[in-house]
Structures are given as C-alpha cells and as structure tokens.
UniProtKB/TrEMBL annotation:
Sequence ranges assigned to domain HAMP in this UniProt record: 65-119
Reaction equation(s) it catalyzes: ATP + protein L-histidine = ADP + protein N-phospho-L-histidine
Protein name: histidine kinase
GO molecular function, one term: phosphorelay sensor kinase activity
Segments traversing the membrane: 40-60
Organism whose genome encodes this protein: Fundidesulfovibrio putealis
Record domain Histidine kinase: where: 127-340
Predominant cellular place of this UniProt entry's protein: membrane
Keyword Translocase: no
Top enzyme class: transferase
A GO cellular-component term linked to this record: plasma membrane
Length: 343
C-alpha cells in the first residue's frame, strides 16, 4: 500500500488480521530500506556489467593482438621461405606449447622434409650427370667409330651390339631410379596386399639359381611357410632380386649363399647371407645411398643403386634393414614389424 502524509508518500507492506468482535489488526512495515537496497544492487550490477564488458573488450583486444602477431610471424616466415627461397628459414616457436607452437613445429618438420628431398634431388641429379656421362660418351664414341671405319658387317654388328648394351645399362639405371622414387613417394602403399614371403623369395631364387650354378655357388633356401606381410609385390620382389643379385655377383667361385625366411619375436624376416668380401662397418651406411660404390666393386657391372632401392622398399614397408658381418661375407636382413602378423 501507499500512504500519504506530511507531504510524503511511503510504500509499505501490510497484513490485516481479523480479530474477535469485528475488530481488525493491521500489521505493516515500511519498504524504503528495501527499495534503497534494490536501487543500490541495481546500480552495482549495472556498474559491474559495464566493467565486465569493458574488461572483456580490453582482454579480447589484447588476445586478438597476440594471435594476430603470431599469425603475422607465421605469414612473414612463410613469405620469406616461399618467395625468397630461403628454405633454411623456420617458423618461430614461442615455447608456450599452444596450438600455434604445434602448428609451427609441424610446418618446420615439413620444411625439414622438403629440404631433405630437395637435397636428395640435387644429389641424384649430380650423380646422374656424373655416372651417365661415361656410358653415354662410350656409346657415342663407338657409334662415331663405326661410322669412320670401313664398312664391314661384322664390325658394324659388334658396334651395334655394344651400343645396345650401353643403352640397356642406361635404361636399367633410370628404371632403378624410378623404382626408388616410387617407393620413397609412398604412392605404392595403395597396391599393398597380403604376401607370402616364402613364395616370393622362392620365385626370385629360381631366377638366380642358374647364375649361381655357373659360378659353382651353393644356394641354400630355408623358407618357412605362411610368413605373411602386407606389401607391394613388385617392389618387394625387386628388393629380394637385388639382394640375390648382389650376393651372386660378389660371392667368389665355389662360395655359398643362404636365404632364410622366418617369423620370430621381432617380426617377419628375410635374410640373405653370402661368403663374399663383405662391406666394412664404416661403409654400411654409405652403401645405402644412391650411386655409391666401394673401391673394390668399381670394376664390377652395376650402377650403385641396388642397396639404395632395397633401403627405400624397406622404409615403405616399415621394415628395418640390417647389414652385418657373416664371417666371411655379408648378411642382409629385412625385418618387418611384428604387427603384420602371421596367418
């Protein structure tokens, strides 16, 4: 109710109680204190809301400035890398461990990988130019010599056969490079299927048994049945063929070669052992590179790409490649992850 008196208007809350004898008891309380409290609370909430909004805007401005600064650092570094060609430049990392640091780490890892690939491309280009210069020069010299000589069917036939051999060697080098590139590009994963390593190794060994017999080399196969891995049939066959080719090529007359396929605690294993000269421990990492040849093998036919291809195929299949002493000779093992399982 509202009561007026002495030129004042007061608000109060009242309660009427009916008593005996038609009498009424009126109990009331003035609400001015409550109203003042409501006004104070309303003002406080208004002021608090204002400062909350203000602080939110200021904090948002500061945070957006930091975010934009971090983004600008990434953009600036990206522009310098892409437009300036400075692949040694890296995205700065603040050390806060936030999403921007994780993004910067991922981009830096990508740049490291791109740098490695470009370095490999440059090395391969240099190696191709160096290693193909000699066979191409010999090919041209023999053809020019055939033109200068007195026409003779026998000599011309010999010159043509030599030219064909040189061209075949060059084509084989390019095919090996293409196979390595295919394996390193990971594109061959789309052709993975369940393979029996024993069957695959037996098929490859059949091709090299005549070559081994010509050198009186004892070729022993020990292939366990049912050793299965997911893989690319063509690339794995090529890798096994390269291992057998190296073993036959460098094993002396009357030597021995042992090929083992088994499944053990470490996973599925293909192991090729020979009794040749072996590879010194300090050179085992180098021979996995492209076009690398040891001094004692420079007079042996080959391009220096055999073990490089095997290493690329092993990486594609998640396998470890181990080169060990065989006392005498070399033992090469491809150890596949045990997760491939044996069925």
């Amino acid at each position: 109710v509202t009561a007026e008196g002495d030129s004042k208007s007061l608000e109060a809350r009242v309660h009427v109680v009916t008593l005996m004898g038609k009498m009424h008891l009126l109990v009331g309380r003035e609400l001015s204190d409550v109203l003042r409290a409501q006004v104070i609370i309303a003002r406080a909430m208004t002021i608090g809301l204002f400062f909350t909004v203000l602080m939110g805007l200021l904090w948002g401005h500061v945070m957006s400035g930091k975010l934009l600064s971090r983004l600008e650092q990434v953009n600036r570094a990206s522009r310098e890398i892409i437009l300036g060609g400075t692949l040694s430049r890296r995205i700065p990392v603040s050390g806060a461990g936030d999403e921007f640091d994780r993004l910067a780490d991922n981009l830096n890892e990508m740049l490291d990988r791109i740098g490695e690939l470009l370095t490999a491309v440059r090395q391969v280009s240099d190696n191709i130019a160096h290693d193909l210069r000699s066979p191409l020069t010999r090919l041209r010299s023999r053809l020019e010599l055939a033109l200068l000589e007195t026409p003779d069917p026998a000599s011309q036939r010999q010159a043509i056969e030599d030219a064909i051999d040189q061209a075949a060697s060059i084509i084989a080098t390019f095919n090996a490079l293409l196979t390595i590139a295919q394996a390193e590009a990971q594109a061959a994963r789309g052709g993975f299927e369940r393979l029996d390593l024993g069957v695959l190794v037996n098929d490859a060994a059949e091709l090299y048994e005549p070559l081994a017999e010509d050198k009186d080399i004892t070729l022993t196969l020990n292939t366990a049945p049912g050793v299965l891995v997911p893989g690319n049939r063509h690339l794995l066959s090529q890798a096994v063929a390269n291992l057998l080719d190296n073993a036959v090529k460098y094993t002396p007359q009357g030597g021995r070669i042992a090929v083992d396929v088994r499944s053990g605690p470490q996973g599925e294993v293909i192991r090729v052992e020979d009794s040749g000269p072996g590879i010194p421990r300090e050179e085992r990492e180098n021979v996995l590179g492209r076009f690398y040849r040891l001094d004692q093998s420079r007079n042996t036919p080959g391009s220096g790409l055999g073990l490089s291809l095997v290493a690329a195929v092993a990486r594609l299949h998640g396998a470890r490649l181990l080169l060990e002493d065989n006392g005498p000779g070399l033992a090469v093992s491809m150890i596949f992850s045990g997760s491939s399982g044996q069925a």
